[in-house]
Specification:
single chain, mainly beta, Neuraminidase, Methylamine Dehydrogenase, Chain H, 24 strands
Amino acid sequence: MKRLLQVARCTFRAVCLFFSVALLPAGAEKLAFVRDGNIWVAGTDGSGEKQLTSSREDGGPALSPDGSLVAYHSGHDERTGFGRIHLVPSTGGTARIAAFTGVTGSEHPYFHPDGKRILFVGLSNPRAKGKGEAAITYATMSVAIGDLETAAARPIVQTKDVMLDAGYVYAAPSVSPDGSLFAYQTSGSDVSGGFVLFDENGKTVFRYPARAADPTPFWRPLMSTDGKQVLCYSPATSEKKKDAIYLIDRASGKRRLIAEGTHATFVDAGSAIVFEQWVDKWGEKARSDLWRLELAPGAKARKIVTNATQPAAQTPGVKAR
């Protein structure tokens, strides 16, 4: 009898531990991230980690406003180098391709606050110029918005005849919480490129850095709940520099350093951020962990997830259902 009670107690503890680790509280906001090329989700405090994909070639996750879907890009076309956007339930299940009319390749998804559309970097009309090994592939690249129900897609800004070997024109698009403004990162190179905010007609309303000649990288723009500030990061371009996360004030154009790290995202309706912080970044054993920082005076960041990159929260300013 004593042995049976011990087994029962151990089983009960194991079941309790499983549910505390594997399940997120009902209605809790979620965080998506990448680990070893696969998509994972967890709570915004790092609890309840769950693996969703296993291809080892997935990236750029985005969460729907209600937290029920994760969009990400996966695979790549040998000719263009572009992948396709996929959708998978955040509770787990079979992923499907989100196909859009007239779009050959799609990456960097970001959900519109209405939850029915996705903003993304699109590639269309790929064509080769030249023959044989001398052939160079060109295409039209755009920041487009696609309807998940009808598959209709509309480019908001686009550039034709982009030489694909030169890299992206656009990256990391996002939408303001009220849906009125869009943003994208000008990819530039590994050590340059700022960001642009624009309206639904493609008209630029804000650019950072303001001087086009400024080569400092400011990447992954995300607008605050009230739209007055832009969260971004500036990756270190040498071992002597540090990765930096900033809030940019749109009215003054001034920036405020808020943390050391990269790839920051707003969580919990903009009350905090989650970001990457690298260990031995320039060494052979480089690893990124995720940290959380409350946006309150005197708050200190704390590590919430180990061995993870590319954190993405539910659309800022929209609470989980």
